[in-house]
Amino acid sequence: MVGLRKKTVKKLRLLIWLVITLVLGALISARASCDEEDIDIVADGGGIIILLDGTVWRSLDPATSATWLSAETVLVCDNDKMINKDEDGETIDIVRMH
User: Fold this and answer.
1) Which of 32, 62, 68, 84 could be joined to 77 by an S-S link, Cβ 3.0–4.6 Å?
2) Same domain? 42 vs 17
């Protein structure tokens, strides 16, 4: 009886470990997808940001992006957020224009 109980506990521990591993794996893969690029031009008082890869973005927070400069490095995440790595991680919402 005791041996059967120990086997059941071991199987339960293995199942719990497996579930935790699967949940953590799903959380890690669900994080934001970001691409790193450099700014080419900031125009229209921070309302338009053109990156060196040629993409054009509209800033939904031009008061923040108005201080961003050419050659600063940004992350474009999930095509709706831009994070400026050179400005202490300032983040803006964006819309792709081209």
Assistant:
1) 32
2) no
